[in-house]
Amino acid sequence: MRVLAAMSGGVDSAVAAARAVEAGHDVTGVHLALSRNPASYRSGARGCCTIEDSNDARRAADVIGIPFYVWDMSDEFHEGVVEDFMDEYAAGRTPNPCLRCNEKIKFAAVLDRALALGFDAVATGHYAQLRTGDDGLIEMHRAVDHGKDQSYVLGVLTQEQLAHSLFPLGDTSKPVVREEAARRGLLVADKPDSHDICFVADGDTAGWLKEKLGDRAPNDGGDIVDDATGEVLGQHEGTYGFTIGQRKGLRIGRPAPDGKPRFVLDIEPVSGTLRVGSRDRLAVHAIDADRARWCGTVPERVEGTVQLRAHGDEHRAVVTTDGEHVHVELLDHASGIAPGQAVVIYDGSRVVGSATITVAHRVREEVQA
Fold it and tell me: What mean pLDDT is predicted for residues 247-272?
């Protein structure tokens, strides 16, 4: 099978490419150039897809002994991920750019180009497992290493995309991957894992948004209001700098009557109002979501679990859907859930699908009491 190995420059994708070769596939490595101005990209462990990463990917391909290319996907990345990120924050929502990158870039634009060039599949270093179900469909399951499991950010993949995907690391733990990389002579064996948002140069998301949004900024400040009393507690410099559940950065200056910290409960981008309150007011018992994407057959009802953040907890839930819209009743209450986040639905370890949260229904005070 002809396989295109997406090589980020990290240890995971390098070992995934090596394993694809070892499995007998005809493998070609490709690194995705995602920045319109590569010189501005950071180096080190923050983010991914830097110039440093491109060089590391090339060296790994040389060691493995496979052809290597760099594909310029900067326009697709800017439109599908960066612009979406800014639009979502401007609307008072909290997006996950890694999930959107998988949907729009790695398993859409890249896979489409790979198939057009005659490749049969794209291999990546994601930690997830693929199996063929009794109905003949390809199922995606959680990785063996639950601490590294990345099925949440892959929950946007359709059956057609899964049928042309390979995840060689799904049955392996991260320490084993590093040991294998060292044994294979890959210099990235001890390279730190990437983290943060790759296109935010210094990790300051609020500062980056303030600079980039410009006229699209929904407001240049507003009131911070106590959700229970309506009292104005202070002001802020822009709702895009906050997300639901956030505690730091409010700078209210005086504690709540009970002495406990306040958290962002609601964001109103048009009026510029932030509503804040105690932690227990963040509890959510139900979720509505749209833009559903299904990994296989569309279900009517799932009694399983949902995950609401990357590396977040699982919550027991009953999920109903008409195919496009999703309603989730949480049997285990969640906390601090924001519109724009993804809800990924599981039946045991199998990923059923995902949707984008539009409304998080908070537990009423009388129920909390």
Answer: 84
